[in-house]
Amino acid sequence: SALLFSAPAVLSPSSLQKHNIKIRSLGLDDFDKGLCNVLQQLTTVGNVTKESYKKQFLKMQTQQASYIIVAEDMQTNSIVAAGTLALEHKFIHNCGTVGHIEDIVVDSKCRGKGLGLFIIQELVRIGDTLCCYKILLDCSEKNVAFYERCGFKKKEIQMVMYLPHNEKIASSL
């Protein structure tokens, strides 16, 4: 199966190996392995068909600005966790790059095994390899303590503006 990006092999820590879980890049066939079902535990996914998943996957693969990793339960061949590192290329900081960690989710049946922490650590490692000068993430207040344990610290304030007409456009692609 095609992978979103090629990266050095990720060695799952022994704590994940005993649970028969493999961490890897997002694959083209992960739609069939339940990626969207896991993402629905985080937020609204919408009507993502196999065809729209493939189209978006190939766009992401071409643009090389999104690094999505998944945790696959090797016994059930299902995705049980995921996370994204999105790159923002800047003119400031010597034309530097900022990484944005997004969409961290662990299946409710698999929480408490260290998957979230390992996915965050792996995304930070990828960001470091890609020479990001900083990595940002937004989270709800209830998740602050978890991300602090991952090495992040609270800084400033996040603001958002939702554009409802773009939600309709995105769902029709």
Which descriptors apply to this entry?
single chain; 173 residues; alpha+beta; Aminopeptidase; five-stranded mixed β-sheet; 7 helices; 5 strands; 33% helix; 24% strand; globular
Shape descriptor: globular
Structure annotation, total helices? 7
CATH topology: Aminopeptidase
Helicity, in percent?
Answer: 25-40%
The major beta sheet can be summarized as: 5 strands, mixed
Return the domain count. 1
Q: SS-based structural class?
A: alpha+beta
Kindly report the name of the CATH homologous superfamily. Answer: Gcn5-related N-acetyltransferase (GNAT)
What is the CATH class designation?
A: Alpha Beta
Average pLDDT for all residues: 89
- Measure the end-to-end span: 23 Å
What is the second-level CATH architecture? Answer: 3-Layer(aba) Sandwich
How many strand units? Answer: 5
Rg over CA atoms:
16 Å
Share in β-strands: 15-25%
| Uncertain regions spanning at least 5 consecutive residues | none
- What is the helix/strand order? HEHHEEHEHEHH
Strand order of the largest sheet: 1-2-3-4-5
Can you describe what's shown?
The structure is a single chain. The protein has helices at 14-17, 35-39, 50-63, 92-95, 115-129, 144-149, 164-172; strands at residues 21-25, 66-73, 78-89, 97-106, 132-137. The chain is α+β, with helices and mostly antiparallel strands and 173 residues long. The chain has one domain (21-171): 3-Layer(aba) Sandwich (Aminopeptidase). Strands 1-2-3-4-5 form a five-stranded mixed β-sheet, sandwiched between helices. The chain is globular.
